[in-house]
Structure prediction request, 227 residues.
Amino acid sequence: MNDPVLRLDALVKRYHAGQPNEITVLRDASLEIAPGEVVAMVAPSGSGKSTLLHIAGLLDAPDSGAVAINGTEVTGLPDRRRTAIRRDEVGFVYQFHHLLPEFSAAENIALPQLAAGASRSTAMARAAELLDRVGLTERAEHRPAELSGGEQQRVAFCRALANGPSLLLADEPTGNLDPATSDRVFDALMALVRETGMSALIATHNLELAARMDRVLRMEDGRLVAG
Ligand code: ADP
Prediction:
């Protein structure tokens, strides 16, 4: 059997540990995501969704518990190895696009590939292919400020997928858009995810969007439970 693309095992995360204002955000959070599976994570704001996504994406470490990506247990790996796994295996999308304002849409998508060692021509060709898949070929040379909110977010999806990750982590990826745009942009994201066969963990407040994923989890009292 294939390893899960993401396995979180009994994660605990506290802030302000040992101080009077200590809070336990994750208490015993566990999940497994199979290859190609798209999982929604639904919970009110402040429940710990971003904290969990940061830990799953190796941007933060838990106080206890384990994280494995494609069967590789990452807790305890040297920073250099963790950074390489994050770069090669994980794509991030946030509520705000975080595109670099001085670069074009295509260049924003090329940058993570250049950081991973691709040549400029290969990176720009891949950027053009991804932009085509989200219907933004005409916008390739535009800077983020010249794009609508929905277009900016579609470029951010392309950037997240640029290095061909096996796991997409998304934190309210359409939370900043009006409902009609949010639906269309979410469709674009799902199409990209399904075409590539990647796995995804997507935090959202939107129950209709959540219902379109393979499985819904709720975060409740620092744990993940079936939704
Ligand atoms: P969500 O993404 O569901 O809104 P978060 O993971 O952002 O939840 O936050 C969960 C809780 O942890 C909140 O109460 C938040 O204030 C707290 N928190 C998040 N990050 C930090 C931090 N770096 N230091 C202290 N508290 C934090």
Summary: The pocket of adenosine-5'-diphosphate is lined by residues 15, 23, 25, 43, 45-51 (CB under 6 Å).
